[in-house]
Amino acid sequence: MRAPALPGGLALLAVLALCAARCRALSFQLPPRARKCLKEELRRDVMVTGEYEVSGGARTDLRVTDSSGHLLYSRDDARKGKFAFTTDDYEVCEICFESHGQPGHFRVPDQLVTLNIKHGVEARNYESIAKAEKLKPLEVDLRRLQDLSEFIVKDFAFMKQREEEMHDTNESTSTRVFYFSIFSMLCLVALATWQVFYLRRFFKAKKLIE
Question: What is the pTM of this model?
Answer without folding.
Answer: 0.59
